[in-house]
Amino acid sequence: MKRLIAACALIACALCGPLAADPWKASLDANLTMTQNAYSDNWVGGEVGSLAWVFNSNSLAERQYNPKLNHKSTLKLFFGQTHNQDKETKTWGRPVKSTDRIDFETVFRFTLGAFVDPFAAARMESQFLDASDSANERLVNPVLFTESFGVARVLTKVDKREWSMRLGGAFRESLDRGVRDPISGTEANKTSNDGGVLFVSDFTTPLSENKITITSKLSVYKAFFTSEKNKLEGLPNANYWKDPDVNWENMLTASITKYLMVNLYVQLLYDKEVDLAGRFKQTLSLGLTYKWSR
């Protein structure tokens, strides 16, 4: 990823010459929601106490360095937990994750005035806490790096409404740290990489005098090669990696007051290597919000 960003900077200097940059355009939309229940020890009916909280944050920074170079970065941070009491003992159990996401992407787009613009992008996807192995919890793991390049087109960009598409080649590297062997108990890092073609559609639009915002991101990735091919040879899932991976994220944020909002997040995933069917995630929350932009 560092090599790709450095290469983008060198190409930008070669194409654009001296920079006369516009000011940064930045925004932050963060919200915190919480639900809590408590009951006395003599309460009848079988209910137990619970505490659930979710933090969501969406950040954006964009700059037009000059008429030939645009740079845009986005950062999504989601994390939430649920705490429950034991029905019999009334003791509080360990918190369980309800949502967890780290998603950072930076895109350099060379605005040369043609029908499409060349671009180069880098993306990092992970989570704050990997709880897949309760005896070996790890921070910021696993990590998926994606470097892509190709052509992009902005279909519309008016005020805060924007719709853009990108199509090009992509390379992905996956890192899973400290994977425990179930037999020997030893830990080792697991890495893999693949390459193929990537299509991305980004859409954002405000509604109702900017009190409602809809954001949609569709990513479709088709691999042409993988480092795991020889390991999978002869297995029933040997060719699953050839099927396209689809990730469609949709978020609706509605401001009730300046500091109170409703947030609806819906995600559809399809990755045949993980599950033969598609996966679905939905989060609906009401809570406090903070918005900043310049």
Q: What order do the helices and strands come in, and which of them pair?
A:
Blueprint: H1 2-16, E1 25-37, E2 50-66, E3 69-84, E4 96-109, E5 117-126, E6 129-130, E7 138-139, E8 143-158, E9 161-180, E10 187-207, E11 212-226, H2 229-232, E12 245-255, E13 260-270, E14 279-293
Antiparallel strand pairs: 1-2, 1-14, 2-3, 3-4, 4-5, 5-8, 6-7, 8-9, 9-10, 10-11, 11-12, 12-13, 13-14
Briefly note the structural class of the backbone: mainly beta
Give the count of helical stretches. 2
Along the chain, the helix and strand elements come as: HEEEEEEEEEEEHEEE
Q: What is the CATH-assigned architecture?
A: Beta Barrel
Q: In total, how many domains does the architecture comprise?
A: 1
Question: Mean pLDDT, as a whole number?
Answer: 89
Beginning-to-end CA distance, first to last residue: 28 Å
The CATH topology is what?
Outer membrane phospholipase (ompla), Chain C
- From the alpha-carbon coordinates, what is the Rg to the nearest angstrom? 22 Å
Residue stretches low in confidence (pLDDT < 50, at least 5 long) are none
- Estimate percent helicity: under 10%
The best one-word shape is flat
How do the strands line up in the largest sheet?
A: 1-2-3-4-5-8-9-10-11-12-13-14
Number of strands: 14
CATH class reads Mainly Beta
**Main sheet: strands, sense, barrel:** 12 strands, antiparallel, barrel
